[in-house]
Amino acid sequence: MRAFIAINLPVSVRQDLGEIVARIRHAGPPARWVPPENLHVTIKFLDEIHQEQIRPILGALTLATGDHHPFELRLGGFGFFPNERKARIFWTGIESGFDTLKSLARDIDHQTAALGFSLETRPFSAHITLARLREPGPADRLAKAAAHIPYLSQMIPVAQIDLMRSVLSPQGASYSVVDSVPLR
Q1: Cα–Cα dist 75/154, whole Å
Q2: What's this model's pTM, rounded to 2 decimal places?
Q3: Confidence (pLDDT) at 88
């Protein structure tokens, strides 16, 4: 199964983002918009795993979260990867709680590396993907539309990390929680 480690967002935050997307998506280039029920913060993408790897992964997550207490995140702002002129991904970012999240992600990365998963080579860039543009290119109209919407989420309590399953289909991905590991 395809798997990743994530923080799932509260329904109210997903609904708020869904309403914002509904207001601005007309301004964007052709894109695959992420449905609100799929919005999350990816901590680490694991790719294909086997059933027998689930227990060791949960053990690694338990070790990684052992020194981390529950914390809060706040989302805000919009941006593009790699940039607005060559946009591929439209996202909202982390306004507060980033350093705590980065530390947690680093510990998860090291614990899962002990199981044979690759260490992340790119700098940690926490975000929530809102859309994947079908072809890279300028997204100035979408950037302008998003600039007129000042977005700052409520504080989001983070008390657990979820091991997620991703099932791909022609209609898009669907995600489900395999298991959760609480923060200390």
Answers
A1: 8
A2: 0.94
A3: 96
